[in-house]
Specification:
The protein is an all-alpha fold and 110 residues long. It has one helix and no strands. It is rod-shaped.
Length: 110
């Protein structure tokens, strides 16, 4: 009789304890998963924002680089023209000279 009563008591209490334990464990596990999901989503959003800023900076630098290349090309073209003019004997005028066929308007009589 004793064996039967012990087994009956175990059967009555064991499933209830196991169900409560399993339920609590699952709730804790789901809570941890939700917390991890929030953390991962937040970090992905932050990384996306940083990537957008980096992309904006990169586009700005590419545009600035193109402008600088254009300026370098322009300056080197002026330098090349100046060098070629020097080779051909052209010189820069020190003071400009103006020639006119018209007579002087006011002449100093004294």
């Amino acid at each position: 009789m004793k064996k039967i009563r012990i087994r009956t008591e175990l059967r009555q209490h064991s499933p209830v304890v196991n169900k409560n334990l399993v339920t609590k464990t699952l709730l804790v596990f789901i809570g941890v998963l939700l917390l991890l999901q929030i953390i991962v989503s937040n970090s992905l959003a932050t990384i996306g924002l940083q990537m957008a800023q980096i992309d904006q900076n990169m586009r700005s630098l590419i545009s600035e680089n193109a402008d600088i290349k254009e300026q370098i090309t322009s300056f080197s073209a002026f330098t090349a023209v100046g060098n070629k003019a020097s080779e051909l004997g052209f010189i820069k005028p020190v003071t400009p000279r103006y020639f006119s066929n018209q007579p002087d308007v006011a002449v100093d009589i004294h």
